[in-house]
Specification:
The structure is a single chain. The protein has 285 residues and is α/β, with parallel strands linked by helices. It has two domains: 95 residues; 116 residues, no CATH class. It is 41% helix and 21% strand. It contains seven helices and eight strands; from the N terminus they run ααβαβββββαβαβαα. It has a five-stranded mixed beta barrel. Helix 2 packs antiparallel against helix 6 and helix 6 crosses helix 7. The chain is elongated and about 115 Å long.
C-alpha cells in the first residue's frame, strides 16, 4: 500500500485531501468562534431581561452623546415619565407580531431630559380599509409614567419623506431628532402590556429568552463543529482507504492467477494473461 501511495496520482490525491481537510478545520474553528459569540450574546441578553428596572436615562444616552452596544441595552426594563406627543406619531410598516403583518404605533414621549420614542403596540394591516392606513387609538393626554422594554436604534433610512402618511420604514432616533427638533434618546422602547397608551392595540410580546440572539441555537453550532472536524478526518483518510482497496484488489487478482494450473505448452506469463483475459472477458492473442 505504501508503494501505491508513492505513485504520482496518489500524491496528487493526498495534496488535494490535505487542502480539503485544512478548509474543514478552518470551518470548524470558525464555528467554535460562532458558538462562543452566541453564548456570550445570549447570556448578555438574558441578563438584561432579568436586570432590575431603572430610569431610561440610566440605560439610553441622547443622540450624539454616545452609542451603546445592542448587547448592553437590549431588553432592559426602564421607566419614563412624560407627555405623549401625538403630532409626532408614526406607523412603522411591515412589522410582524404573532404571524400577523401590520404596523408598530410609534409615539414620542417628551420627558424632562429628552424625547423617548415609544412603541405603544401593534395594529394589524387587516384593520385598514383598502388603500388606506388603519385607524390608531389615541394616546393618553397629560403626564404618564410608563414601564417598557428597551430596543437598540435602527440605523437604516426610515424613508419618512418618501412614504408619506406618517409611515416609517425604520425607527431611527438620529433622523427623528432632526425631524422633531428636540433631543431624542438613542434607542426606543416597547411598552409592557397594560401600560398607559396600549389600550386598543396588540401588546408586543416578550422576547423568547431560549435563544434571544436569534439564528442557529447553541447545540446546532456544536453539531456544525463536530461535522466539520469529521469531514477533515475523512478527507485525510481518503487516500489510504482508496490505496488499500486498490492494493487488495491487485492481491486478489494475483492469488487467482497463482492458483491456475499452467498447461505444458504455456509459459507462466502466458497462463497469467490467459487467466486475466478469461476473468475480464477479453481475448488474448
Amino acid at each position: 500500500m505504501l508503494r501505491t501511495l508513492r505513485e504520482p496520482r496518489y500524491a496528487a490525491l493526498s495534496v488535494l485531501m490535505l487542502i480539503v481537510a485544512a478548509i474543514c478545520v478552518l470551518a470548524g474553528t470558525w464555528q467554535i468562534s460562532r458558538l462562543s459569540g452566541k453564548v456570550t450574546e445570549n447570556d448578555a441578553l438574558r441578563n438584561n431581561a432579568h436586570a432590575a428596572t431603572t430610569a431610561v436615562g440610566d440605560v439610553l444616552p441622547l443622540v450624539g452623546k454616545g452609542t451603546p452596544s445592542a448587547d448592553s441595552i437590549q431588553y432592559r426594563t426602564v421607566t419614563a415619565t412624560g407627555t405623549y406627543q401625538p403630532a409626532g406619531q408614526a406607523l412603522v410598516r411591515q412589522r410582524t407580531v404573532d404571524g400577523d403583518t401590520g404596523y408598530l404605533v410609534l409615539t414620542p414621549l417628551r420627558t424632562s431630559q429628552g424625547t423617548l420614542l415609544v412603541v405603544r403596540g401593534f395594529i394589524s394591516g387587516t384593520a385598514a380599509r383598502s388603500g388606506s392606513l388603519p385607524t390608531v387609538p389615541a394616546a393618553p393626554t397629560g403626564q404618564v409614567s410608563v414601564t417598557a422594554r428597551v430596543q437598540p436604534a435602527e440605523t437604516r433610512n426610515d424613508r419618512a419623506t418618501q412614504l408619506g402618511g406618517k409611515q416609517l420604514e425604520a425607527i431611527n432616533p438620529r433622523l427623528q431628532a432632526v425631524r422633531l427638533g428636540t433631543p431624542v434618546y438613542a434607542g426606543y422602547v416597547e411598552l409592557h402590556a397594560g401600560q398607559p397608551g396600549t389600550a386598543g392595540l396588540t401588546a408586543i410580546p416578550a422576547p423568547d429568552l431560549s435563544n434571544p440572539a436569534g439564528g442557529a441555537i447553541e447545540p446546532q453550532h456544536v453539531a456544525y463543529i463536530i461535522q466539520w472536524y469529521l469531514f477533515a478526518l475523512l478527507a485525510l483518510a481518503a487516500p489510504f482507504v482508496v490505496a488499500r482497496a486498490e492494493t487488495r484488489s491487485h492481491r486478489d487478482d494475483d492469488r487467482e492467477v497463482d492458483d491456475v494450473v499452467i498447461p505444458d505448452q504455456q509459459t507462466p506469463e502466458q497462463a497469467r494473461a490467459a487467466r486475466l483475459a478469461d476473468r475480464y472477458g477479453r481475448v488474448v492473442r
